[in-house]
Records
---
Amino acid sequence: MMKKADFYSFLKAIPKAEIHLHIEAVISKNSIKKLYFKKNGTEFTEAAIKKLFSYNDLNGFITAFLKVQDLFTSVDDFDLVFSDLQQYITDNGVSYAEVFFAPSAFIKKGFAYGDIMQNFSKNIAAIKKETGVDVRVLVDVSRTFGLENAEKNLDMLLANKIPEVIGIGLGGAESKGPCKDFGPVFERARKNGLKTVAHAGEDVDAWSIWDALDVLHSARIGHGITAIQDEKLMTRLKDEAIPLEVAPTSNVFTKKYVPSFDKHPIRAFYDKGLMVTVNTDDPLFFKVSLLDEYWNLYTKLNFTKAEIKQLVLNSFNSTFLSDAEKKAWTDKVEAAWK
């Protein structure tokens, strides 16, 4: 058994991909304080910050997430987010990231989608120049605000295409926006060459995952923890090698299906041969880093070092990189591991 400091040091040096990460939730508390002061002209007190981050279910978390989004007053506020993302990438030894961005709240505030994308291009190029890390974006069309809003988000994406945006995702309050309602958006996205992924099986039962596969034809499943309820579904996920973007601490935190880390189904998924990946979802909101997640698997769910390596390999093999790029990264993982 490795000591914690040794484990973190070792794993930080291994190339890793993260594919389920909400960009607004990589923001630091210091940046939130800056946004608050800019908007309100007063300090954001520690008591107020503590209250903001006090929630005990998925909907409470989403409310807090929207409150953070509401602190933004101009497009250049995203510079703070990308600065924090760069720090997160560096701290965790992330070599490639596919991140979610939810534009709905910002568009409602009057931000121009095209201006946001220009800012993203600039900041992603800066991260690449300074760290060598490629960041790609999946626009969360958001189930929270309904089908019409999701259609508008796709319209804006298609009218303002940038190479850094590779697809769409479906996030938000799963119980309020079933996957089956968004089939037309996903079909149109694919016809326009976009990748499609969906959060499913995070806050409702396994039928949501079936709908994500059969209606949305989602290439990956965000969370997918309720697949554990359905042997037939797990067999299909395994046979079709459909990646699960698992975020263990997030699932424990929202308490809907996972009462404690040692009860998380990721162990069973891995043992059954499913394509499992490890992610953080919302690092600030769930007080977790990617290195923390791997450490928790190592210490609380008895993942061996060899199994940890396989999870890291899975993360690259589940990206939307080309096959050649995936092989280049997995070769680097193998070399670094030795």
---
Amino acid sequence: MVNSLSERIAPIRQQIVEHPLYGSLTELNDLRTFSQVHVFAVWDFMSLLKSLQRNLTCVRVPWIPVGSASTRYLINEIVTGEESDIDPAGNRISHFELYLRAMKELGADTDPIQSVIRSCQTGTPIETALQQAELPEGIYNFCAFTFSLIQTAPIHVQAAVFTFGREDLIPDMFHEMVIRLSEKYPNETHTFRYYLERHIEVDGDHHSQLALQMVEELCGNDPIKWQEATDASVRALELRKGLWDVALNEALAV
């Protein structure tokens, strides 16, 4: 059934991989602009990941077994890599915090994402925090969809969006562009290049296979679950394209 899902999402997925955004990223300032949009995807990816962990494992006391040990292993393995990886010096760091460090090194503006996080830290509901940040419509819609899934969608749907609508959508040409810029601006792009290469090494291969196994385990042979997973994945990809549209428009406006 996973093959049917892959076929259904293939057209919108291809639109994202071939998005004109990548061809517009030619200078350091373009990368700054891109990161200011992309960081919201990195952040809400972490939020969706923690929702999966909360629902697929026991995070309460007293501890009580939840679900299958196989699914618990899969999600915990991904969480470990995403939440406590290593930076270039070998120090433990989450991928999101590493991305923020890369943005600061680039000279990108981290205030919009930090303002949302600060609001959440003071107890502001996520929907309100996103609205108060006055984000571009494409960013707001992307994040609002993710958090609506976290609040209301069944876990197999969340797992499908996590697996098929997330961070394996950056093509090789983007990586090649970052390499070219790193040769021209080594000090400003060192951490960003490391993040991207670490992402390809860990997320793009090992984690993607673990996530796929998780979806197959959760959907099983239930055609209704697979249909729900497919519909949500398509919508997530449509919103990712909208996120890239924002990044392209802002890059062209600079």
---
Amino acid sequence: MPKVSVVVPVFNLEFYIERCLASLARQTCQDIEVLVINDGGTDDSQLIIDEYVAQYPGIFKSFIKPNGGHGAACNYGIDRAAGEYIIIVDGDDFLDPDAIEFMYDKAQATEADLLIGNLLYCFSDRTQPFKPLPFESERELSAEDRDQLYRNWATPCGRIYHRSIFADPDVRLLPGIFFADANFTPKSYLVAKKIYYVDKELYNYDITRPTQSMQQTDKRILNIVPALQDMLAFYRKKGQFEAKRRQLMWYVGMHCVAWIQRVKTLHGYPRLQALREIFAVADENFGSDWLKTGIAWDIFGRKVHRAVKIARVFNYVPIVVFWKLMGVCGKIDRGVERVLEFPLRAYRAVKRRLRNRLGAML
């Protein structure tokens, strides 16, 4: 049994995968296996994967499966992992050389079955730390601390899981959708017996890829609906829905409000229908109670909270009406600016002619 199994889901990442695999080959912890899952890609990613398998046959293992989405690829690797601990590293991201050794040693020392660290967002021109928890030092999470997990954005990255987390076959990522991370992470919170947090950046998260789920503007943004619904069904199945009702309201409400900005840029699907489908997750599961928790106020501010509260009364029509009004106002504003710019352009043209004539005379 290796110390750590690293699951790497890959789909058409030929411009990124070499960096990811190189970072795993350089790990100071050598007692690892890396399961690279090619999820039916059509580019040259597999050629790069094969090179690493040939160069490091004791570490890298290659698997090719029909396309089933990010969640299905992760599940495929998890089900075949032999390590005592499991780490998920997306194929367009990468780790620092000591990341796995640090996570494994810390998980062993603290006896945590889920260890959580920070991320480092990597933009094209800068980096930005992301903390999933608002703590300034490492600690085992108390019951109150664990509640904070539901008030923050979820990702399985930058974390190490004891294989016992996945002993329950229901603790998996929902296949076939975007935003499978949002579906899986709360499941892990429920089954983890001991969660430990370290205030250290453990994962480099590339934010630049155009096809990344965070960049989508088509109907696939509505994948958040089955992601959240399946997660809530998991809590009901485990008999924990009522016990964790407030935390689940935070989590669902936060995602619904955040998706307003995604729907604003949605193309190819009615925006009002999209809003209603997304907010139906909160409204049908929690009624108006999710707004009363104050999560929209706390995360997005008083104005957004009040706007959503009013919009909900009118079945979310005011949000779309506001967008249309802003679009009309924008067109009027640009038209007025063009009209006002005309005399200025004429004045500048006259001034240039006078300057040229005076220059010729002198």
---
Amino acid sequence: MRFDIIGDEYRILLVDDHKLIMEGIRSLLAPYAHLRVVGMAQHGGDAVALAASLNPELLILDLHMPVMNGIDVGYAVREILPHVRILIYTGHEDQRCLPELIELGITGHVRKSEEPGVLLRGIEEVRQGRPFLTFPDPRGRMAKLLQQSLVHEDSFHDLNTLSPREKEIFRLLADGKSIRSIADTLFISRKTVETHKYNLLTKLRLESVGDLIKLAIRYGLVKV
């Protein structure tokens, strides 16, 4: 199930095999204009397909679902959207799976037994790039691992490594301009543009211009 996307709101995809849970989350977020539920999926395959088409910034994900569990869904979505943030929302109280979830690269973990306001706070913390964990963590070990994961994520594609010309070409490529159009606009050769494109992809560790566009959307450099 998908919904229309409006403006620059923070796009959230809900994945849970219980529709009432997702409707409850959607109602919880309804008063907050900046938090937009763009889709809901009850099965892993639907979740992956919706993630590919909707490009959410946050995945709120249950762990226990039929056919495809939450961890498998997380990995599958990450294959398509490497920088989507994942907040686990689960009724599972066993902490033994936390190391595996951290390896997946989750940003937050909220138990369904918590008050709804805790989930809302967790979403805001994750949205602002801070880890959130409701499990007891007296030594802060798990929170530290989550923070390290976030630091690695943010440094993996560091736009500050780009030169002014590379940033200019980055924006033009992300805006859908062709090599020829960029060359004509900047009064440089197509070969020079191709070289800059290669350097961009290398520095940002991207595979294609499509990946570059996704990164530009994430940083708000282009509109969707």
